[in-house]
Amino acid sequence: SGGGGGGERDRDRDRRYDDGSPSRERPRAKKKRGWDDMGDNPQEAAAMLLQQQQQFASMATMPHNAVGGSKKQRELYIGNLPPTANEGMIKELFCNLVAACEGFVPMGGPPVLNAQIAGGGQFAFVEFRDEQLCETAMQFNGIDLQGRQLKIGHPNGYIPPMTPVQQLKPPKALLERFGLTGGIVGDRVAAGVTQDTKKQRELYIGNLAVGAVTPVMLKELFTVPLSTLPEQAASQLPPVLEARVDPNGKFAFIEFASEELCTTALNLFNGMELCGREMKIARPAGYVPPPAGMMGAAAGMGGMMGGMGGAGGLGGGMVPQPPPGLPPGLAGLVPTPPSVPPPAASNGDKPMPTHEISLGGILSAAVLADAAEYAECVEDIRSACEEHGKLLHFSCPKEGEPDAGNAYLKYEQIASAVKAFEALNGRDFDGNTVKATFLSAGTLQA
Length: 446
Prior knowledge:
- The protein is of the alpha+beta class.
- The chain has helices spanning 2-14, 42-56, 87-99, 131-137, 172-177, 184-190, 215-226, 259-269, 292-303, 365-369, 371-386, 414-424; strands spanning 75-79, 112-118, 123-128, 144-145, 148-149, 151-153, 202-206, 240-245, 252-256, 273-274, 277-278, 280-282, 346-347, 350-351, 356-360, 391-395, 407-411, 428-429, 432-433, 435-438.
């Protein structure tokens, strides 16, 4: 009878997604519309996130009394260690590296005071005798140790000094010996990534949710959209080099690979909501504005982000926000859009992200023809899409409507759209392979 068909349809729904999710044995509660990553209780979620962070990196617990010259200022995190690494090996390696640099003074004592492995052997902390040697060792990020490229950075609790610390210069022969001249160190030098340009490549991030924001979270948030820029296709460096959160958790500093990326990030992210609070982004103390001509060129790069704008703000008024849309005189030259929303411009095989996405061919003709099945599928699709951020628009044209069988999404944040694209593109839904496509900005109405 009709009841049997409904049971069969329910069993089919349990097999729609290919992600191995458990069968539904009870009605699913209606999802809350909004940011899914903070749940119903942002305070409780923030506390849980902080607890997990402390359990994972207990060796890097942030002190509230860190001062210049303290252990945190002289310590480095060393990640991606090979399985055979031990504390003696790591200490000897960094002693030899730093001692070989031009300007090293052996009379000051051994360059490395201590090396301690943590995280089940996955990473270590190395304590240097002073801040200069600590900053010098930062230049060896990416060095090869038994087939592993070491990841070197400052630990949680590090406070950037008011005056940049002068690094010792590694000799060319030393860099060549460890294969760094064509690697990360060589790429940094070639790209102008030096201590002298750090203030030009750095941003202050304020108004953070205390206890909820981590360096890893910030680095990922900024890296994902910036990695899609055409300029990054030929770059050997990641767009974000380092993210440092103040021990009190109220603000952070992010270092970028270039001044242009820094300017783009300022225009793109200022005012964006993170963990329920709008980030206040500005240039740090010591930043020197470029000449007016270069200023306009940098702002133009922000315009290449297309629909990525809209976060608002000028970050202190030093860099103008790129004007949105076309000049009025060119508006009449824009052709009428077709019924199918146009895809966004792309860089080769790499699509240019926007806030808006289409999911092509996600609903079959059989589903469209069954009203009950259609409603259930739409609910499933929307729930999966909301896992990646707040939706401003969601629609699935019905049978007989233009573009029936597709789904259309518009996210509040560009980072959410990028995550949704990566998660849903190529995924199977009810036997259909989903084709995700970024749409031109302004195609969908909120």
